[in-house]
Amino acid sequence: AALALDNGLARTPPMGWLHWERFLCATDCATDPRRCVSEQLFVEIADVMAAEGWRDAGYEFVCIDDCWMAPTRDKQGRLQADPKRFPSGIRKLADYVHSKGLKLGIYSDVGNKTCAGFPGSYNHYDLDAQTFASWGVDLLKFDGCNSGTLELLAEGYKRMSLALNKTGRSIVYSCEWPFYLRPAQQPNYTEIKQYCNHWRNFFDVYDSWSSIKSILDWTALHQDSIVKIAGPGGWNDPDMLVIGNFGLSWDQAVTQMAMWAIMAAPLFMSNDLRHISPQAKWLLQNKEVIAINQDLLGKQGYQITKDKNFELWERPLSGQAYAVAVLNRQEIGGPQNFTFSLSFLGNGLACNPACSVQQLLPASRDWGVYSWVSSLSVEVNPTGTVLLKI
């Protein structure tokens, strides 16, 4: 297990693109080739990421989720890509993605079948790790469906971690371990961080405001047990960014981006980058917000107060700075003002004796210098967030 304690990866939260929320398990390429989970989709996404600033903004992984596989393993017992949808094979796709200065992620499952019913990795952990490494894969998302007992679940996650390390290839390891554990027992996050680079705690994100709210509520409710474990090498994963799709208003998209930065979340977009609005692109590529997410101190933020419809969150940053998010949960009426004392932030240290305040979202502007005893009054739209750097 010593090998698994730190595989040297995910020093900051990983960033990239993942097909699941937007493209699900679409396998009918004959009638809808543009939306089908296929080689073509990942090649086109890689092209766009390289050409349109996504890679340069930090989004480096192009990730395949469930449903890429053929229904059975090959004669040697190895996983294989569906030959119709991935005619060139995963190795060729990885080479293409690498040629664009990007990395390839892939998906498997700790159980005997994936969540969508394709072959899982149970009893094949070493073979599958070797297969992924031989293909040039850079990240593995390892799901927890059909795993049998909790003991088998834990054993499978540990064994795949060790198997990945044994390949000698740097492969980021994304786990769903605590999510599948939680209904029955409190996860041991110290142990999980020994084996995984990031891990899901809660249900899949949907393209809806109610989904974003439920993730934020769950995170705030459990912050005492999850915030302290996050840091370089291991991160809590609240799931994909759905900005640029259909379900979020502009203010709600701002809230997701701001709060995912506060939570030190892996930033994996699930959208169609071939068709995305300039506004969504501006938000997802916002350098100042990404810099907060990627801050090298590596501390996850947390909710410090809740007052009627307002939530105040903070995240300690390097250089004695803080990111502060003011979230308005009201869903009726117009913009509301929230006033708070700067002495409230960072246990009184964030603005002592004085500090500069920069607003990053929903638009960038300089608020100037304030003293420790000052109050800030922030106007926030319904379901929106104002993100500040102190």
From TrEMBL:
Domain Alpha galactosidase A C-terminal: 298-384
Compartment(s): Lysosome
Keywords for the protein's UniProt record, in alphabetical order: Disulfide bond, Glycoprotein, Glycosidase, Hydrolase, Lipid metabolism, Lysosome, Signal
Enzyme Commission designation: 3.2.1.-
GO cellular component: extracellular region; lysosome; membrane
Catalytic activity, reaction form: a globoside Gb3Cer + H2O = a beta-D-galactosyl-(1->4)-beta-D-glucosyl-(1<->1)-ceramide + D-galactose; Hydrolysis of terminal, non-reducing alpha-D-galactose residues in alpha-D-galactosides, including galactose oligosaccharides, galactomannans and galactolipids; a globoside Gb3Cer (d18:1(4E)) + H2O = a beta-D-Gal-(1->4)-beta-D-Glc-(1<->1)-Cer(d18:1(4E)) + D-galactose
Organism expressing this protein natively: Eubucco bourcierii
Pfam family for this entry, one: Melibiase_2
UniProt keyword Signal present: yes
Assembly and interaction partners: Homodimer.
GO molecular function: alpha-galactosidase activity
Gene3D superfamilies named among the record's database cross-references: Aldolase class I, Golgi alpha-mannosidase II
Name recorded for this polypeptide: Alpha-galactosidase
Gene Ontology biological process terms, A to Z: glycoside catabolic process; glycosphingolipid catabolic process; oligosaccharide metabolic process
Described purpose of this protein according to its UniProt entry: Catalyzes the hydrolysis of glycosphingolipids and participates in their degradation in the lysosome.
Family assignment from sequence similarity: Belongs to the glycosyl hydrolase 27 family.
PANTHER family assigned: ALPHA-GALACTOSIDASE A, ALPHA-GALACTOSIDASE/ALPHA-N-ACETYLGALACTOSAMINIDASE
